Amino acid sequence: MARQPRYRIPGLAQHVVQRGNNKQACFYHDDDYRVYLDRLKLYAEQYGVKIHAFILMTNHVHLLLTPEAENSVSLFIQALGRFYVQYVNKRYDRSGTLWEGRYRATLVDTDNYYLAVSRYIELNPVRALMVDHPAAYPWSSFHANGLGKPIQLWQPHQTYMALGETAEQRQKAYCELFSQDFSAKALAEIRYATQKGWVLGSERFKQQIAKQTSRPVSPRRLR
């Protein structure tokens, strides 16, 4: 089944994934990650995108973000991708495309799914058996969400802020979430929604989006 057209709703969180073409590497050296993060911050500010969670894996990137305008995400991803391809091609004397032709994105019901998606993103290197804990992976928003490390491009979502009255309380509550098992059902749900572009949320949230956009928000059930 083909992926759905992207939703363009300002003020609603989105889970965005961009992968290397044919699963090839996008980052080869620590400097590459630093350059990408620097431009991530620059273009997020330029196009009105708030970054709440991120992970830079060897051959793909996950972002949990909120756009300020309908075209914020598309302009942001285009500018970021265009710059980084030019940077990699010049630095490594290569040519051609680097990313898959189409980034993937899904709307996220922040009342019910925000923290699950944030954990899903930051647990990527753990699932890939690269580290034992997300704190051990350097290119991740866990250092801000869970450890309180200043990351300039990171902006906390209101759902995260509701975890506690102080920064220390929020960090402790967030870290405690990682002691819980991530259910196979939640993992499959997040992956399917992102892969296909369906809305990730409760039935009530899906109905609200369907009414607002006049389009389907989940696959039709076979009778």
Automatic annotation (TrEMBL):
A Pfam family per the record: Y1_Tnp
PANTHER family linked to this entry: TRANSPOSASE IS200-LIKE DOMAIN-CONTAINING PROTEIN, TRANSPOSASE, Y1_TNP DOMAIN-CONTAINING
Highest rank taxon of the organism: Bacteria
Transposase IS200-like domain ranges (all copies): 9-124
Name recorded for this polypeptide: Transposase
